[in-house]
Amino acid sequence: MPRSFLTIGATLLVIGLAVGLPIALVVLGVLRWGDDVLFFLFAEIMIGAGLLVVTMRDIIRCGLAMIVCFGALAGIYVIAGAPLVAAAQVLVYIGAISVLILFAIMLTQTKDAPSSLVFQTQSLGAGIAAIVLAVIIALTVSSTDWPDVGARIHTATDHLATVLFSEYVLAFEIVSVLLLAAVIGGVFLAKRETGGPS
Amino acid sequence: MSDSLDAYLILAGLLFAIGTFGFLARRNAISMLMSIELMLNGVNLAIIAFGAFIQELSADGSVIALMVMAVAAAEATVGLAIVIAIYRNRRTPLVDEYDAMRR
Q1: Contact, A58 vs A28, CB < 8 A?
Q2: pLDDT(B78) > 90
Q3: Quick one: pLDDT at residue A46?
Q4: ipTM of the complex
Q5: Nearest-by-Cβ selection for A107 from B8, B53, B84
Q6: pLDDT range class, residue A149, cuts 50, 70, 90
Q7: Is the distance from CB of A84 to CB of B65 less than 8 angstroms?
Q8: B75 to chain A, minimum CA–CA distance in Å?
Q9: Which stretches does DSSP call E strand in A39-195?
Q10: DSSP secondary-structure letter at B55?
Q11: N or C end of chain A: which has fewer CB within 10 A?
Q12: Which CATH fold would you assign to the domain B5-97?
């Protein structure tokens, strides 16, 4: 019982910090009210859920945290002015890929899977490598002067459709054939052979 | 903050780094696939960010992001099918126990 209280308290603390930090930044004048606060909130949720995906012990909870991460990313797409991509993100990632991964998790669960060791022995090196990678990317991005960068623009969906079905129509068809091949290949690989070894 | 390209790109880099860590550190094959999905999403966010801030790439960025999503779906299908096929033979989803070619 005290342990569940502790969990609830920690969760409330994290939620309070996540909501309080952007408000504090608005008060301090770093963020502007509106898009900035939403962007900050979505970014927090996305990074937090992403960290939960790679660190949590129970893999089903990892899958559920991945859904949260993708949902927050769809929100960021909306803020970036790409509503069609956000809708596709919800449909494809949350609706299809996450459910597929959850099914695969449930098919490959063993009794002692959550209690056994989650990380490999190289996890310390992996953590250092990931932090170094993030720092290098951040430094490179902030020191690069991107050419032709203007104000943030909204992508009109009808213009996007025109471009997709005129300029990129060959790529579109190739991707549809690729999806068909992947589905057939997936069925073939996961099929249980009759008469084979179990 | 939401009006600067750098914020989006740094966010994408963070998501990519988290995915890298998960791919290198986790033992479960499905966890590694989930980390790959995180990395693909980071790349997608960078593409969308460039599309949102550069006038000429406005529609192209979204189209490329949709293509990446379709390819990611194909990758998830085949990858999970391979994991399930291996699981059926070896009875474990942990990658460090797949040592048939090392013995």
Answers
A1: no
A2: yes
A3: 94
A4: 0.92
A5: B84
A6: confident
A7: no
A8: 8
A9: none
A10: G
A11: N
A12: Helix Hairpins (1.10.287)
A173 lies within 8 A of chain B by CB: no
pLDDT digits (tens, 9 = 90+) for A51-89: 999 998 888 999 999 999 999 999 999 999 899 999 999
pLDDT digits (tens, 9 = 90+) for B14-68: 999 999 999 999 988 999 999 999 999 999 999 999 999 998 888 899 999 999 9
Residues in B touching A29 (Cβ below 8 Å): none
Pick the residue with more confidence: A133 or A114? A133
Which of B22, B55, B69 faces A92 most closely, judged by CB atoms? B69
Contact (Cβ atoms closer than 8 angstroms) between residue A164 and residue A172? yes
**Which chain A residue shows the shortest CA-CA distance from B43?**
A73
Is B7 at the interface with chain A, CB within 8 A?
A: yes
3-state secondary structure of B26: strand
- A1-108: CATH topology is Four Helix Bundle (Hemerythrin (Met), subunit A) (1.20.120)
Which DSSP category does A154 fall into? -
- Residues of chain B in contact with residue A33, where contact means CB-CB under 8 angstroms, are none
* Main-chain dihedrals φ then ψ at residue A109, nearest 5 degrees: -75, 130
A153 within 8 A of B58, measured Cβ to Cβ = yes
Is A179 close to B33, i.e. CB distance below 8 A?
Answer: no
The domains of chain A are located at: 1-108, 156-198
Q: Is B63 on the interface with A (CB under 8 A)?
A: yes
